[in-house]
Design goal:
Layout (H helix, E strand, L loop, with lengths): L1 H5 L1 H6 L1 H4 L9 E6 L6 H9 L4 E8 L3 H9 L6 E6 L4 H5 L4 E4 L15 H18 L4 E4 L4 H14 L8 E3 L2 H15 L10 E3 L6 E3 L12 H12 L1 H9 L7 H18 L6 E7 L7 E9 L2 E5 L7 H26 L3
Parallel strand pairs: 1-2, 1-4, 2-3, 4-5, 5-6
Antiparallel strand pairs: 7-8, 9-10, 10-11
Helix pairs in contact: 4-12, 7-8, 8-13, 9-10
Length: about 350
C-alpha cells in the first residue's frame, strides 16, 4: 500500500489516497470562487473531503451560504465558510494560500469555449483583481474557460497590481490528462489509475495535444487509431456538452480534475518531492507566451518546467498546427485587459 501511495501516477489519480496523506502537517486555506456552480459544488465537496485543507472558503454571487452549511456537516477537519456577493469577496480571499476559480458560464451545444469569452473574461478579471488585493501571494488555479485566454487575463491583471509571479498562476488542463489516461486505458485494457499521458499545448480543440508517445506504460497504436484517439481527447468536452443536451458541460469530471491538480499543488507546497502535473502557464518552451507542459511543482509553485520532451513526427505536426490558434487566444486575453476600463 505504501509503495502504491508513493507512485505519483497512482497517488495523483486516486482521490482516496489523498485521504491518507494527512501526515503533512498542512493547514492550507483554500478558496473556491464560483463555489455554487456545476463545477464549484462537487469541487468543494472533494476539497472538504481532504485532510490537506484546513479552511475552505466558498464564494459565489448566489447560494453559497447554503452550500457552505451543507458541506460544514461533513466529518472532516476543514472549516467551511460561505461568502456571497462582491462585498464579501475580500473576506473569502484574505489569507488564502490557494485560490481555485471555476466561476463563469458553461458551454451549450454548438458553442466553442471561445464563445464564452465575453462573459467569462470579465468574471476572471474581477476575481483576479480581488486576489491581487487580498491574497497577492496565493497560487491561482484557473478553470474558467476559455483557459487559453483567461490565464493571460489573470496574469495581466496581476501585473497591473505589481504582484504577478508566473510560477503561481496555473490554467487547469488536468481534465485533458484524465481523459487521455481513461481513453488509452479503455483501448488497451489497462487500469486507468496506472496510465499517465502528458497532454501539452492549450485547453481547447486542436490546441489540446496528447503525447501518446510519452505514455507510461509505453503503448502503441496504428496511425488511424492514434488519429481517432487524439481527436476524441481533443473533442471530449464537446462529447459531454452534446450528451447533456443543453444542461451544461463537464462538471463532475472537471471537479475531479480540479481537485487532483489542487491536491498535487498542496502536496508540493508541503514539501512532497517529485510532484509533476501538466498546466497551462507562462512559458519559454515554444514560441507561444503561454503553453502547457509537464511541470515539477514545489513549495513556491512551479519549480521547473520539464518542457516538451521528445516528440513523434505526428505530435510535432500537432504542435505546429496549434500555434496559430493558441497565439490568437492569448493575444485576445491580453488585449481584453489592455482595453479594460
Amino acid at each position: 500500500y505504501t509503495q502504491l501511495a508513493q507512485d505519483p501516477n497512482i497517488a495523483a489519480s486516486c482521490m482516496t489516497f489523498s485521504m491518507c496523506q494527512g501526515g503533512l502537517g498542512n493547514n492550507a486555506k483554500v478558496a473556491v470562487l464560483g463555489a455554487a456552480g456545476g463545477i464549484g459544488q462537487p469541487l468543494s465537496l472533494l476539497l472538504k473531503n481532504s485532510p490537506l485543507v484546513s479552511q475552505l472558503t466558498l464564494y459565489d454571487i448566489a447560494h453559497t451560504p447554503g452550500v457552505a452549511a451543507d458541506l460544514s456537516h461533513i466529518e472532516t477537519r476543514a472549516q467551511v465558510t460561505g461568502h456571497i456577493g462582491p462585498d464579501q469577496l475580500g473576506a473569502a480571499l484574505k489569507g488564502c494560500e490557494v485560490v481555485v476559480i471555476p466561476a463563469g458560464v458553461p458551454r451549450k451545444p454548438g458553442m466553442t469555449r471561445d464563445d464564452l469569452f465575453n462573459t467569462n473574461a470579465s468574471i476572471v478579471a474581477t476575481l483576479t483583481d480581488a486576489c491581487a488585493r487580498n491574497c497577492p501571494e496565493a497560487m491561482l488555479c484557473i478553470i474558467s474557460n476559455p483557459v487559453n485566454s483567461t490565464v493571460p487575463i489573470a496574469s495581466e491583471v496581476l501585473k497591473k497590481h505589481g504582484v504577478y509571479n508566473p510560477n503561481r498562476v496555473f490554467g487547469v488542463t488536468t481534465l485533458d490528462i484524465v481523459r487521455a489516461n481513461t481513453f488509452v486505458a479503455e483501448l488497451k485494457g489497462l487500469d486507468p489509475a496506472r496510465v499517465n499521458v502528458p497532454v501539452v499545448g492549450g485547453h481547447a480543440g486542436k490546441t489540446i495535444i496528447p503525447l501518446i508517445s510519452q505514455c507510461t506504460p509505453k503503448v502503441e497504436f496504428p496511425v488511424d487509431t492514434l488519429t481517432a484517439l487524439t481527436g476524441r481527447i481533443q473533442e471530449a468536452g464537446t462529447e459531454v456538452v452534446k450528451a447533456k443536451a443543453g444542461a451544461g458541460s463537464a462538471t463532475l469530471s472537471m471537479a475531479y480534475a480540479g481537485a487532483r491538480f489542487t491536491f498535487s499543488l498542496l502536496d508540493a507546497m508541503n514539501g512532497k518531492e517529485g510532484v509533476v502535473e501538466c498546466s497551462f502557464v507562462r512559458s519559454e518552451e515554444t514560441e507561444c507566451k503561454y503553453f502547457s507542459t509537464p511541470l515539477l511543482l514545489g513549495k513556491h509553485g512551479i519549480e521547473k518546467n520539464l518542457g516538451l520532451g521528445k516528440l513523434s513526427a505526428f505530435e510535432e505536426k500537432l504542435v505546429a498546427d496549434a500555434m496559430g490558434e493558441l497565439k490568437g487566444s492569448i493575444k485576445k486575453g491580453e488585449d481584453f485587459v489592455l482595453n479594460m476600463k
